[in-house]
């Protein structure tokens, strides 16, 4: 069963949207672009959590338990639940 990130994050989060595309340039200046996958739009979030030391320890332990590999459920500010992975914090 996939775990859920249950802690509250600050309201001033920053989302970055990136399109994962493959680009080939030819000698005459022509460029051909195509998506690398069926879902080429990648979203990443920079979140801030303010709290006591014990709370930070719980969150770090949650991230460490996933080892940057296992996804977990998270509800971003737009309200649509997503599966995410944290590779660094």
UniProtKB/TrEMBL annotation:
User: Superkingdom, according to UniProt?
Assistant: Bacteria
Q: What's this protein's name?
A: Minor tail protein M
Protein source organism: Neisseria meningitidis
């Amino acid at each position: 069963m996939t775990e859920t990130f249950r802690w509250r994050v600050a309201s001033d989060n920053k989302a970055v949207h990136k399109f994962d595309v493959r680009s080939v340039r030819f000698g005459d200046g022509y460029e051909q672009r195509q998506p690398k996958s069926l879902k080429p739009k990648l979203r990443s979030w920079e979140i801030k959590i303010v709290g006591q030391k014990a709370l930070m320890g719980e969150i770090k332990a949650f991230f460490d338990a996933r080892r940057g590999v296992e996804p977990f459920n998270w509800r971003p500010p737009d309200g649509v639940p997503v599966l995410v992975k944290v590779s660094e914090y």
